[in-house]
């Protein structure tokens, strides 16, 4: 179920990245109305959605390099969010110096990193593992011999 939800989110982010970016701005910025996205910022959001879908659909057959990169990004966000927050502000916004971050931006960045790690773990488990988790195992009858 979680896999399907994340695949749906990834598909939505590929097709309509603007609402996702708007939501992230409202979560992380005191002044989201002043944010000036760089022209290619929406393509970065689409790429994130594509990575989610690619890994979750392909499962163990997905590219190991993609899993490693998303896992590394997730681990860095969980452990050291501040440098990544600063870098992403510079990459995504034309006016990064004018934007005021909300106090909970670091926990939000750590949560995003945890989401990346969750996608990697789910992709490594494969579809068959998640299906077997939802179905109770069959019990063989004991023989009386």
Give a quick precis of the structure.
The protein has helices at residues 2-15, 17-28, 41-58, 64-79, 81-92, 105-134. The chain is mostly helical. Helix 1 (2-15) packs across helix 2, helix 3 (41-58) packs parallel to helix 6 and helix 4 packs across helix 5.
**How many structural domains are formed by the residues?**
1
Number of strands: 0
Secondary-structure element order, N to C: HHHHHH
Largest sheet: none
Give the low-pLDDT segments.
none
Secondary structure blueprint with pairings:
Blueprint: H1 2-15, H2 17-28, H3 41-58, H4 64-79, H5 81-92, H6 105-134
Give a description of the structure.
Helix 1 packs antiparallel against helix 3 (41-58), helix 3 packs parallel to helix 6 (105-134) and helix 4 crosses helix 5 (81-92). The longest helix has 30 residues, at 105-134. The chain has one domain. With 145 residues, the protein is an all-alpha fold. It is 70% helix and 0% strand. The protein contains 6 helices and no strands. The relative contact order is 0.16.
């Amino acid at each position: 179920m979680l896999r399907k939800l994340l695949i749906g989110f990834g598909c939505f982010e590929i097709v309509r990245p603007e609402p996702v970016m708007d939501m992230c701005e409202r979560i992380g910025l005191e002044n989201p109305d002043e944010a000036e996205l760089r022209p290619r910022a929406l393509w970065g959001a689409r790429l994130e959605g594509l990575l989610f879908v690619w890994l979750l659909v392909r499962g163990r057959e997905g590219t190991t390099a993609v899993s490693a990169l998303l896992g590394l990004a997730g681990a860095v966000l969980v452990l050291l969010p501040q440098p990544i927050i600063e870098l992403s502000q510079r990459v995504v916004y034309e006016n990064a110096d004018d934007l005021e971050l909300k106090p909970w931006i670091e926990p939000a960045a750590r949560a995003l990193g945890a989401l990346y790690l969750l996608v990697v773990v789910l992709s490594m488990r494969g579809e068959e593992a998640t299906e077997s988790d939802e179905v109770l195992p069959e019990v063989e009858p004991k023989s009386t011999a």
